[in-house]
Write a structure and sequence with these properties.
The complex is a heterodimer. By secondary structure, chain A is α/β, with parallel strands linked by helices. Chain A has helices at 42-50, 72-78, 95-101, 110-116, 119-138, 154-166, 184-201, 212-218, 236-240, 243-250, and strands spanning 4-13, 16-26, 31-35, 57-62, 65-66, 80-82, 172-176, 204-208, 221-226, 229-234.
Chain lengths: 257, 446
């Protein structure tokens, strides 16, 4: 049984069919890509899987547990971490605070521990700091630990966001356009970061990406989404050269207006 | 900062900063202690020597503004003005300089070295000892200062209560970034419920009936009364916390404002609690040490909370709620905690207020109270313990100092607020973490 199994999922926004009859099987350690033109519903699928939206019909099964109806913080705590296309970092918080925040669900000292600064709180906070520093080193952003995240260069912000998702210790990582707006060098570095994380933690990754170079480098399996429907599914090469995909990206050859 | 980067012509502020740079908190406390002792010994004689009508109660500022108020009344209403009182402006300034400013600066700077050594020694023992010793010294200074007159004592008590009240609002408005208008309502609940506890149980009262029990150590139950008031206020906060799961920003601000009006009219119409005349005759249990300890404890727990990861979750919710949820933060729990914890301390502050003034009525918790506390929070600085202390102390003392100007006071203070909002939109000391170790420790200067 796959680690993440989405079956027959559909979602409407009012009258608009944003996603229809979507299926996904993601095995442990597998990297699957999701491509498609703007507005195809890729990010909506992420939001449906993680619980930001509730699917109109269908089921999302993660590690044998039904996720539909669960809140995003619960799905994340179960091991389904994600990043965002527009990063969504907290502008008044330091890099270290970002990483520690993702340990929220693992802290057990409770509110009274927080109010009264108990030894348990001190120990858990210290352990979280140590772990966070490890992850910051892993993603080569430890030199920024005490800086506000808004003051970092773009590529470093992206890596902080990756580190923040990884410190949850996820089984599945959902990456929403991790290389958007990057220079070719930054893009190659990001591919390397994703690959290392994948190898080190035997992570299953589900990746939205516009750049076919990234998809080629990383994915074993690709889905092409158009108007909320999966048009083609297969290896990167097969999908990229499929006439329907080319049509969806470039448009029909004879346009009638 | 080394010589190279320092500007060639340092301004007054820079030079003052450099002058006081090596002084630890302990040094300031010693400086202030010297001033208050000096005033107690020589203040009366010196003010007579200067020809002041009586010893200035608020560092001479009040004396100056009384004269200014006389001049203003002459200009506006044509009231008679005793020109001889003009001389009080320079003499009050002399008093301020000789008794406070000069000795304070000299002693603080001169004792910097030994004060640092003592602070280092204290911190070597444990942080707890260092903090307790310095808080004890701080209390001693305030105690001696407030002994001079009842006016000073009540001003000091109200200022301390304002500090706690402001900081508790900062949890919601600063750390979590929701604009809550319900805070005087929480304070009202705390004030009424703790009064119900003390007046209802221990005193004979027209409204609440005769005392239920009476024993000599009854004042020991005062912490319980404050706790009761705080808990009831926290329960009241659920009414705001639950809508906050779905609503944010302006809409939540309106809901919270509605809550304030509901609470106020509830107490106005509740005849069992004295209606619009309220409850009076609270026992005189809110003494300076009780207030000082309560406020210090409140600041400690709030600071502990906002520096923990559980408390930082409020910042995450404020800066990006969806990201917070995606990073396993239980946003409902965070919001509920912020509202209930803030309301708890507002309720405790209310309990203290009711027992300082020894009466409580619904008119105390009007929109004006809201404006006052919002001014303290935003003036001092959002997301900062320092900010709330500075904001509450400066607005309280400013309000007292400008009291002789009567209605004009409400032109000066808002004007000042507007200026602060233009030049420092988040307040004087915003987004600065209050590090206990650093505050109470020695100042390391190389």
């Amino acid at each position: 049984m796959p680690l993440l199994q989405v079956s027959n999922m559909s979602h409407n926004f009012g009258g608009l069919q944003a996603v229809s009859e979507y299926n996904l099987n993601l095995d442990p350690g597998q990297i699957t890509g999701l491509i498609g033109p703007n507005g195809a519903g890729k990010t909506t699928i992420f939001n449906l899987i993680t619980g930001i939206y509730r699917p109109t019909v269908g089921s999302v099964c993660f590690d044998g547990v039904e996720l539909v109806g669960k809140k995003p913080n619960d799905t994340a705590a179960m091991g389904l971490a994600r990043t965002f296309q527009e990063m969504k970092l907290w502008r008044h918080m330091t890099v270290l605070e970002h990483i520690k925040m993702a340990r929220y669900s693992k802290l057990t000292y409770g509110l009274m521990g927080a109010f009264l600064d108990t030894p348990k709180r001190r120990r858990e906070e210290r352990e979280a700091t140590e772990l966070a520093m490890e992850y910051l080193k892993m993603f080569a952003v430890h030199q920024f630990a005490h800086q506000l995240v808004v003051n970092l260069p773009y590529g470093a912000q992206r890596r902080v966001e990756m580190a923040r998702a990884m410190v949850i210790e996820p089984k599945v990582l959902l990456l929403d356009e991790p290389t958007v707006g990057m220079t070719p060098d930054e893009m190659m570095a990001m591919i390397e970061v994703v690959r290392q994380a994948h190898e080190r933690f035997n992570l299953a990754i589900f990746l939205i990406e516009h750049r076919l170079k990234v998809v080629h480098e990383l994915c074993q399996q690709v889905q092409a989404l158009v108007f909320g429907k999966v048009l083609v599914e297969g290896t990167p090469d097969a999908v990229q050269n499929h006439p329907k995909v080319i049509e969806a990206y470039i448009g029909e050859q004879e346009v009638e207006f | 900062m080394d010589e190279m980067t320092a500007p060639a012509k340092a301004g007054l502020a820079d030079r003052l900063g450099a002058f006081f740079k090596p002084v630890p908190l302990l040094g300031y406390l010693l400086g202030f202690l010297f001033c208050v002792l000096l005033e107690q010994l020589a203040g009366k004689g010196f003010s007579e020597l200067l020809g002041l009508p009586k010893m200035p109660v608020l560092f001479g500022v009040l004396t100056i503004f009384k004269v200014v108020a006389g001049l203003v009344n002459l200009l506006i209403k044509g009231d008679a003005f005793a020109w001889a009182t003009l001389v009080q402006i320079p003499t009050a300034l002399i008093y301020l300089s000789v008794i406070y400013l000069i000795p304070f600066c000299v002693v603080a700077r001169a004792t910097a070295k030994p004060a640092n050594a003592i602070a280092r020694y204290l911190q070597g023992m444990t942080l707890v000892v260092a903090v307790l010793v310095q808080l004890g010294l701080m209390y001693a200074v305030l105690h001696v200062w407030s002994e001079v007159s009842d006016y000073r004592l009540i001003t000091l008590k109200l200022t301390l209560v304002a500090v706690l009240f402001t900081l508790s609002l900062n949890i919601i408005n600063g750390y979590m970034g929701e604009f809550s208008c319900s805070h005087p309502g929480f304070m009202a609940i705390g004030a009424y419920m703790s009064s119900l506890f003390t007046v209802g149980l221990f005193t004979n009262d027209k409204v609440l009936g005769d005392a239920v029990v009476s024993f000599s150590g009854a004042y020991l139950s005062f912490p319980l009364a404050l706790l009761f008031g705080g808990i009831m206020a926290a329960l009241g906060a659920l009414i705001i916390a639950i809508p906050s799961f779905k609503t944010r920003g302006d809409y939540l601000a309106i809901i919270s404002l509605a809550f304030l009006f509901i609470v106020k009219s509830f107490f106005e119409n509740m005849q069992a609690l004295g209606g619009s005349r309220g409850i009076s005759g609270q026992p005189d249990w809110a003494t300076l040490p009780v207030i000082f300890i309560t406020v210090a404890f409140g600041i400690w727990t709030i600071n502990n909370f906002v520096t923990s990861t559980l408390g930082k979750a409020l910042n995450a919710v404020r800066d990006d709620e969806i990201a917070a949820e995606a990073m396993t933060v239980n946003t409902r729990q965070a919001k509920m905690t912020a509202f209930m914890f803030g309301a708890f301390w507002a309720g405790v502050a209310g309990g203290l207020l009711a027992h300082v003034l020894r009466y409580v009525n619904p008119a105390m918790f009007s929109v004006q109270k809201l404006a006052e506390v919002l001014a303290m929070v935003y003036f001092g600085g959002l997301n900062s313990v320092y900010g709330s202390i500075v904001g509450a102390v400066s607005i309280s003392l400013l309000g007292e100092a400008l009291r002789p100007l009567e209605i004009l006071k409400w032109i000066f203070i808002p004007l000042l607020l507007i200026l602060v909002m233009i030049y420092r939109p988040t307040g004087l000391i915003a987004f600065k973490e209050f590090d206990v170790r650093q505050v109470f420790g020695p100042k390391e200067v190389d």
